[in-house]
Amino acid sequence: MNVEAGIAARDNFRCSNCRSMMRQRDLAQIIVDEFGDSTFLDLRRLVESGGMNHLAIYEAGITGPIAARLKNLPGYVQSYFWEDARLGEIRDGVYCQDLRALTFSDQSFDLMISMEVLEHVFDPLKVFSEIERVLKPNGVHIFTMPVVYPFPKVSSVRARLAYDGKVEHLLPPRYHIAGDGSKSLVVTDWGGDLFDLHRQAGLKLTSIRRSAPVVEGIPNATFIARKMVPSNEAHARRQHSTFAARDQVTPHEQRTERR
Predict the structure, then answer these.
(1) pTM of the prediction?
(2) What CA–CA distance (Å, rounded) separates 72 from 82?
(3) Is residue 250 assigned to a domain?
(4) Where are the alpha helices (H) located in the chain, listed in sequence order?
(5) CATH number of the domain residue 218 falls in
(6) What is the pLDDT of residues 44-71, one digit of tens each?
(7) 109, 149, 164, 251 — which has fewest CB within 10 A?
(8) For the CA atoms of 117, 119, 124, 128, what is the dihedral angle to 10 degrees?
(9) Order of all β-strands in the sheet with 219-227
(10) Which residue segment(s) compose the domain that 144 sits in?
């Protein structure tokens, strides 16, 4: 494991083999905990076993060791937002998507993944509502973003969209590097109201903190937003086979047909 001086802990402690950083390994392990039935130690073994082949998975991102590990799964799709592309258009196997207006059908995915994305979105309640819409009942969005512990009670909005669509800066601009190497504006420094917004969107949010394996006391937070199933719907779902055919074409099938 490699430690780089001057780099935040969550972006550090890189694996000497896959180059994953601490926050990426934490997210991978939570995927294993969620879908591995406590029978696998790591994501590689879970994927190689075929234990994720039945899942519809959507990752809002195009790079990183998680994408490299999942990209060959039959139900895995990725997205990125290109301003010069039509929403739903596919470039090199990647969908163009705006998280505020996803083109996927309702209840399309068992798992959604995003890493260092939600601090960059405008209209977050709209984003969370779209995530809730495309998740299947009991589906999960597992994600990371920069946070400070303990959370401040209220988020700090750094920028917003004016009525004319132009960006209005409320705090000095701060940028991260996007997946394509460009600069991405930080819109929100998230606080405790993140949980309230998820509840309003119909999602139950949980934060999971782990510590760096070689330096105790350095926390990293990973988040799980789960689409809850009403008790009557959960009962009805138990009466049907989990192998029932879906009426709508899956995103993976759409992608395959267009190739």
Answers:
(1) 0.82
(2) 23
(3) yes
(4) 22-35, 43-48, 65-70, 124-134, 193-200, 231-238, 251-258
(5) 3.40.50.150
(6) 999 999 999 999 999 999 888 889 999 9
(7) 164
(8) 40
(9) 90-91, 94-96, 76-80, 57-60, 109-115, 135-144, 219-227, 203-211
(10) 55-258
